[in-house]
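Risk mitigation, structural track. In case the binding assays with NDP fail to produce interpretable data, a predicted complex structure has been prepared as a fallback.
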Amino acid sequence: GTAQIGVTGLAVMGRNLARNFARHGYTVAVHNRTYARTQSLVTEHGDEGTFVPSESMADFVASLARPRKVVVMVQAGPATDAVIDELVPLLEPGDIVVDAGNAHFPDTVRREQALRAHGLHFVGTGVSGGEEGALNGPSIMPGGTAESYASLGPILEAISAKVDGVPCCTHVGPDGAGHFVKMVHNGIEYADMQLIAEAYDLLRQGLGASAPEIGEVFAAWNTGDLESYLIEVTAEVLAHTDAATGRPFVDVVADAAEQKGTGRWTVQNALDLGVPITGIAEATFARALSGSAPQRAAARGVLPADTLAWNVPEPGAFIEDVRLALYASKLVAYSQGFDQIAAASAQYGWDIDRAAMARIWRGGCIIRAKFLDRITQAYERNPELPLLIADPYFTAAVSNGVAAWRRVVAAAAAHGVPTPAFSSSLAYYDGVRAERLPANLIQAQRDFFGAHTYRRVDRDGVFHTDWSGDRTEQTW
Ligand code: NDP
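Fallback model:
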């Protein structure tokens, strides 16, 4: 065979990735379970480059130059396993199977092990940016062996988004590292979206502003520290008018947020690792609360707000407070996400370079933002940085907004506006910077009812007090 790369699974994502490869001059073998999709790709886009269509998997594999590089872009879960099972007997040692779907990273770890036993490379790859990104340049997060990246990497880098000429693609780490990092990316996306939604709600309720008015505020914010794809999207959505009713579009959209599960995976993993990603967790639960129809119906109009009307005396100052609170909360959420990557990297032996992760998220993906440059610089200054917001640049950025953040969270509480992500991020900030936390009392309680022991501030060792007896202290 002569094709340099193959794509199997030609629904919207695979089709656009295949076109992206072809547009970059690669000869692309294409295959799909249902041949009609393969045919329509070649009929509609054959002029964009060189496609080699095959009806059978065997012909598809045979059309590829060795070592073969096969991108699998099918539904995550059993479909991915089915395609891999069909591929493996047709491949030869040294060939590379790339799963570019949204796999959960433990599945990727399992598949990598299974294919390694056949002498094959399995590259679980995060791809972010949706259909548009797949076609025009996504952010690509490949896992797998360094050896596989040596031949596959240049092709993926070629089709990835570029920022300042730098590809938004790098080798993340072994086995499940790529899909893991994509999962955390999505978790951070949840947090960022929730924070933006809370800022919108504060402006709506605090100022009584209309959606298009708030859209203008977001458009202005997009020219400063907050400049990012999500802020830009927010401004556009808020400015949009519903054609059917003539009302602002967001006012006719039902307020029950859905999710496909990556936020939940991120939180589940953070619980396993013991990493407090409160921003992502609150964002995931906020979606769940919005969809809790029976609970909301039972509470609405019954549970009192017991608040006074909200009159903001200086709208301009309030808007600036919300902006600063949003930025500070966002820094906390990102800081937590990067902590989770560090913890997973240590736990699973992945050796992930956090500076590189921030670098490949600057373009192509949903959380692309100007300030990711700053995150890269912080981790370049100190690759072992224990806390992102303790990097001097970010400490200064957060410090600048702490007073505003407190005013906003206090006002939200006083006026009954739910701001779980703003509030919990501030609580995290105060918790992580505290001289002394009340965990001393927790330890004392645990020792009282469970003899769980405690450490002392003044002496080394592990201690237990005989609570049910004479209350003398024993060294454990
Ligand atoms: P879908 O997730 O809708 O999957 C459809 C494709 O899977 C079709 O090609 C279909 O073939 C194939 N397929 C399903 N079951 C089987 C099977 N048992 N055997 C062989 N092929 C099968 O496609 P999308 O393009 O939307 O997404 C592809 C992947 O990309 C998914 O993992 C998804 O999670 C991920 N994704 C990522 C996004 C991103 O932004 N990164 C956005 C959207 C999706 P057939 O035509 O024969 O039915």
